[in-house]
Write a structure and sequence with these properties.
This protein has helices at about 5-10, 10-30, 35-40, 50-55, 60-75, 80-110, 140-155, 160-175, 180-205, 205-210. The chain has one domain: Vanadium-containing Chloroperoxidase, domain 1. The chain is globular, with a radius of gyration of 18 Å. Helix 6 (about 80-110) runs antiparallel to helix 7 (about 140-155), helix 6 packs antiparallel against helix 9 and helix 8 runs antiparallel to helix 9 (about 180-205). The protein is mainly α.
């Protein structure tokens, strides 16, 4: 029995507790290294390089709008309904991940590390309550990238390590730019992956999802 099938057989309470524990682990354990990574990982010119810009656009939603169009055009000759579904999944997963990320930023309200020399500072709710500008947790670029690239790993599993390498690369550039703590990136990674996994499990038949 696969892990996914075994997980699905568990009670809702067990599944929720497991999901919460894993998610918090991806936030709280890496947070122990936030200041160290900030002090030792830095490349202010990361987005002045071609590889840095390449990795950053993995977290830009229009990238995946273009990719989804390509997937649809490639697959529609064989099974138009499946092609439409796959294209919508590739558009919808990073979009939903990005929306959830913005809500979490407004809730958690931790500011970008570069603003406070690596210190963890939280913005008061009375201070620009509906603006995510300058907020860091979780990393929106990373969460969008994982929402998209984890879906790519489902759609094209033989190349899954390439997709995940691109997603992690996007997150690394956010740390090198001092825009995010390492825990912002790891938290975003697990959440983005979970969005893609949830959409895949919901919309793809079990025979195909296995």
């Amino acid at each position: 029995m696969s892990y996914s099938a075994d997980y699905a057989r568990r009670s809702l309470g067990v599944r929720a507790a497991a999901a919460l524990a894993i998610t918090l682990a991806f936030l709280l354990i890496p947070a122990l290294a936030d200041q160290w990574v900030f002090a030792h990982w830095s490349n202010p010119n990361v987005y002045g390089t071609e590889w840095g810009r390449l990795l950053r656009v993995m977290g830009w939603w229009p990238t995946w709008l273009i990719a989804a169009a390509a997937v649809f055009l490639q697959q529609r000759g064989g099974d138009p309904a499946r092609a439409r579904r796959n294209a919508w999944l590739l558009v919808g997963s990073p979009a939903l991940a990005g929306i959830i990320c913005e809500v979490l930023k407004l809730t958690i309200r931790r500011e970008r590390p570069g603003l406070w020399n690596g210190e963890s500072v939280f913005r008061a709710f009375a201070d620009h309550p509906w603006s995510t500008a300058g907020l860091a947790t979780p990393s929106s670029h990373t969460m969008v990238a994982f929402g998209a690239l984890a879906m790519m790993a489902r759609l094209f599993p033989r190349a899954r390590w390439i997709w995940y390498a691109l997603a992690w690369g996007c997150g690394v550039t956010r740390m090198l730019d001092h825009a995010h703590f390492v825990s912002d990136v790891t938290f975003a990674a697990i959440l983005g992956w979970a969005v893609a996994w949830g959409l895949w499990m919901h919309f793809v038949p079990k025979s195909e999802a296995a």
